[in-house]
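Below is a filled-in request sheet from our internal design queue. Each sheet records the structural input a requester submitted and the sequence that came back. We keep these sheets so that new team members can see what a complete request looks like end to end.

REQUESTER: design group, bay 2
PRIORITY: normal
MODE: inverse folding
CHAIN LENGTH: 511
BACKBONE (tokenized):
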């Protein structure tokens, strides 16, 4: 990927990135704002660049899995020696993976999105096809800004909030010649900032429809409401079950469920066809996802190594032979596998056969199938010339039902919580929940459902923190959590460049 310098070059979704002209743009060089911010086409190109920068932030070295999947230790044991730093010891200081503890790519995406908002806001409506189109561009930029800060809050907790567009090095130097230092702010302030941005996005965007050309791969009103549901429930969990935030999460999830046009995949009746459509992307259940398409020249060759997420999740038969040294497998001793084995309700859960290859039959062969969709290069006779076709699912409709169930469980309203939980269970041939209606029992049931439903989608690590549920994560303890050891450390280079940044308490002296 090409390097990006703020306001000098925009990456357009790592190259050509979508099935529409809106995102199918070349990288652009900007010489002067009056030259560039003069048409809707250029504004569209800029938004494509913002999506591309967010995509780069989460896909670099498969970071989204390290941040949100391996930390959860639910089903997959990657057996990758770098992942063992997490699964084996809880040590997030990963050798040769500086990008995992460096937030710079997120700030690039957030700053570019903020820059778009500032300039597009000042562009006359006459430069656009309509005011609705101008609002859409502003709404998508605000969505990306909110999403990047939300990711940073979940990964690092306290982070700096930069409320200006950094376009010149002069902005980094004070009037008396000193380097401007921006400290970390409390995570609730970060969440307030993300919430302000997503509310702006919701107010500007319109609902879309499954089947639309940009469905789920660019933000619409439902995408923004899904993000708000996550932000507010995370906020509530970090603020003593903040009642207002819980209600906002319920309202946001309800709006998505009622108005998005999305529908759930019925795994029992739709089987592999429904599963494949969901994973390949832009399906009826998607709300926001990262598009991976060989047809649109934005895919990548499948590799058996840790530099892409397929290498960390796939094994035989995708690689034509079994690799038992570093390849992933479904660990029978991990939390999710024990849960599925001991819960009688899960005996006929169809997701075991849909989501995994030969689940429970051979540990060396069993692996996740959500990223197994690929396309063979027709011009190559090489059996390994396969290119990924599986999208990275960020938000989808099942997530909204289970977030709403969790929010109601936090309120002590068990009826609606169980109803939403059962809605998801029914799609996988799992009987209705008959366990306890107390908060602890419901939260475990919801966590378990999320663990199997979103396996491989980088949710369980964040679910652990939000739900304060660490059963099956052996290195977590009260003393570590008291020092926020569930957050990732800040890269030392960030601190050396900005001495106002203070390392998270747990990680002081460990880097």
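RETURNED SEQUENCE:
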């Amino acid at each position: 990927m090409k390097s990006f310098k703020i306001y000098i070059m925009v990456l357009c979704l790592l190259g050509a990135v979508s099935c529409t002209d809106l995102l199918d743009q070349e990288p652009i060089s900007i010489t002067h704002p009056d030259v560039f911010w003069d048409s809707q086409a250029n504004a569209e190109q800029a938004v494509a660049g913002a999506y591309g920068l967010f995509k780069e932030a989460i896909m670099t070295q498969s970071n989204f899995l390290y941040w949100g999947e391996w930390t959860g230790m639910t089903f997959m044991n990657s057996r990758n020696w770098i992942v063992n730093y997490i699964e084996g010891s809880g040590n997030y200081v990963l050798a040769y993976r500086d990008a995992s503890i460096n937030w710079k790519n997120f700030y690039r995406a957030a700053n570019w999105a903020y820059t778009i908002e500032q300039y597009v806001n000042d562009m006359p409506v006459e430069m656009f096809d309509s005011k609705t189109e101008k609002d859409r561009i502003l709404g998508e930029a605000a969505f990306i800004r909110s999403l990047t800060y939300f990711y940073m809050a979940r990964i690092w907790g306290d982070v700096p909030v930069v409320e200006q567009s950094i376009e010149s090095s002069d902005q980094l130097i004070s009037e008396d010649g000193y380097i401007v230092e921006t400290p970390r702010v409390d995570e609730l302030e970060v969440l307030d900032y993300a919430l302000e941005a997503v509310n702006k996005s919701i107010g500007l965007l319109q609902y879309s429809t499954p089947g639309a050309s940009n469905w789920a791969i660019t933000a619409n009103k439902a995408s923004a409401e899904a993000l708000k549901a996550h932000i507010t429930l995370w906020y509530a969990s970090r603020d003593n079950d903040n009642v207002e935030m819980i209600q906002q999460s319920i309202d946001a999830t309800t709006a998505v469920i009622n108005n998005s046009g999305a529908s759930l995949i019925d795994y029992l009746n739709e089987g592999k066809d429904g599963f494949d459509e969901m994973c390949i992307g832009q399906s009826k259940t998607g709300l926001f996802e990262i598009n991976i398409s060989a047809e649109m020249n934005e895919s990548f060759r499948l590799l058996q190594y840790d530099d892409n997420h397929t290498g960390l999740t796939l094994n035989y038969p995708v690689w034509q032979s079994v690799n038992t040294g570093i390849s992933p497998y479904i660990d029978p001793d991990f939390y999710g596998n024990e849960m599925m084995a001991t819960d009688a309700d899960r005996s006929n859960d169809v997701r075991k056969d849909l989501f995994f290859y030969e689940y429970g039959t051979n540990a060396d062969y069993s692996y996740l199938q959500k990223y197994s969709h690929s396309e063979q290069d027709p011009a190559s006779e090489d059996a390994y010339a396969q290119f990924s076709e599986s999208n990275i699912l960020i938000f989808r409709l099942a997530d909204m039902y289970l977030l709403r169930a969790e929010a109601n469980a936090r309120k002590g309203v068990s009826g609606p919580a169980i109803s939403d939980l059962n809605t998801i269970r029914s799609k996988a041939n799992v009987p209705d929940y008959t366990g306890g209606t107390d908060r602890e029992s419901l939260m475990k049931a919801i966590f378990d459902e999320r663990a199997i439903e979103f396996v491989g989608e980088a949710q369980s690590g964040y679910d652990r923190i939000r739900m304060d549920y660490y059963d099956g994560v052996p290195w977590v303890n009260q003393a570590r959590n008291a020092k926020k050891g569930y957050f990732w450390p800040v890269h030392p280079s960030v601190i050396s460049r900005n001495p106002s940044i203070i390392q998270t308490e747990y990680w002081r002296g460990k880097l």
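SHEET NOTES:
- The first strand starts at residue 9 and ends at 10.
- Confidence is low (pLDDT under 50) at residues 1-32.
FILED BY: M.R.
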